[in-house]
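Q: A reviewer asked whether we had any structural model of the full assembly, not just the individual parts. We don't, so I'm hoping you can provide one. Inputs are below.
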Amino acid sequence: MTCSDPDTLSGLSWLLCYLTTGKHLSLYWSVGTVLLLLAITAPVSLAFGFGGAVAARSRLPILSWPGKAYIAIVRGVPDIAFFLFFVIALDQAFEYVRHKVICPDWDQPIRQGSDFVVCQAAKLPLSTAPQWVHEVYGFAIAVLTFAIVFGAFAANVLFGAMRAVPRAQVETAEAYGMTPGQTFRRVVVPQMWIYALPGLSNLWMILVKATPLLFLLGIEDIVFWARELGGPKTPRFTDYPHGDWRMWYFLALLVFYLGLTRVSELALGRLTRRLSRGQATMGGEAQRKGTAPA
Amino acid sequence: MSCWDTIGDYALRSLGIGERLLPRSDFTLCQQFTLIGSGLIWNVYFAVLALAAGFFLATAVAVGKASANPLVRKPSEWFIFVFRGSPLFIQFFFAYFAFLSLKNAAPALDALTSAWLGALIVLFLNTAAYSGEIFYGALMSVPKGDMEAADAYGFSGWKKFRKITWPTMLRLAWPAYTNEAIFLFHSTTLVFFSGFPAWQQRGDALYYANYFADKTFNPFVPYPILAAYFILLTLVIISLFGLANRRLNRHLPQTQRARLTFRPRLIR
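A: Here is a predicted structure for the entire assembly that you could use as a starting point for your response.
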């Protein structure tokens, strides 16, 4: 079977050839983009969240106020507003800083009416940069945006989890003469995960379901390709003419996400059982007695 | 032109009343406040109707999921799984294109492809699934003793559900349901970014905020305005649901009442 002459094909072989055209391969690649975004964003926002939580519980108001404000603001406003905001705001912030550093003798104002003007050398990415740099830069901004928004949620969860570690554990550590830093590192952090897990699992689900918003950040993701490929095609422009199939493409995306969340659910269930081991919680106690449900 | 003129021109712009053309240059703060506030009408419209209708379907789905009969339980479980397991954004796209094909088959169903009806249906089903899961969890934690007491008093069937089970379920579910309401309200901003067209530039608050950010290339004004509006309305939701919460808990001693806390966003 060859795909060189689609007019002669029919039925299943037509479909197989259709689904392996160059553009469809781009669609499959963009699934990789989604998974890459998840793989990078999850640890980065966990790090942001950890920083936020540590700052929020600090005794110094200088640290605890920004930490608490970070948690509070992001939660009160729709996340997609943040996505739309940060994409421009981060871009302008980077260019502004570069402009100040690279072109100190620039005398015109940066905001001129409805324009944002920085010197050529401060543009990000440089107008001379190849295409892939533009794509990587766009993706990096998207990852940073996701990390900032989800970092605030993670900070909220971790802040609660650090406080949920039984007081007796901390007091015991203090009685053994550990410094606050040692207590935090050796007692609070290792024990907090089981308390954080329900919240973090929930967060992971939200993150998975937020990935199609990449489309709004101008990334060529699965939503972009589904719209592109599903639209009606006439024989003049393609070897594989078809009607409006966007509905079926989005149905496929729907099934893809259902699979992704189902797999996550199962994996998180296993992780919960693993982390419950040896903990002073009901789940841990049930495992110790060997009565935990398999 | 004073700010009052601007309000007169644009306060109902999102419904198509007033000035036809959106401002194109020399954007004032007043214009941004008015238009974004005008768009808020749509967010409130979607949230109120979807929540009001979704509440009843959610109760039905929760009872269905708790049912012993697999013919009722399985569809309820699948309904919850499909709408909770996939992104709302994709649901909007799928529904829009599905409605579009439906319209081609039967032109009478034209209204489904416009946001006021099509998006409302998606939001309604979506919130019914999330609230259904919340209600199901609450239904499972209704105290056994309450049910036994109801039996002892001779309650049965519909009357037992209406007078005993349902109010207790609502009482237990209310804090989580408040979060769901806030989240749904925030989700209404997705409508005009997901296929459903904003006909004659009649959009929601985020649509206009995005319009201004695109035109002025300055995100630092419209988005904070939008955020202020949303935080304000979120507080309104919390106080309204707080009133309902007080009523649901009015028979309990003061110390046992479930307190509503401002913890939106973490339930999905």
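A: Points you may want to mention in the reply: The mean pLDDT of chain B is 89. The longest helix of chain B spans residues 29-65.
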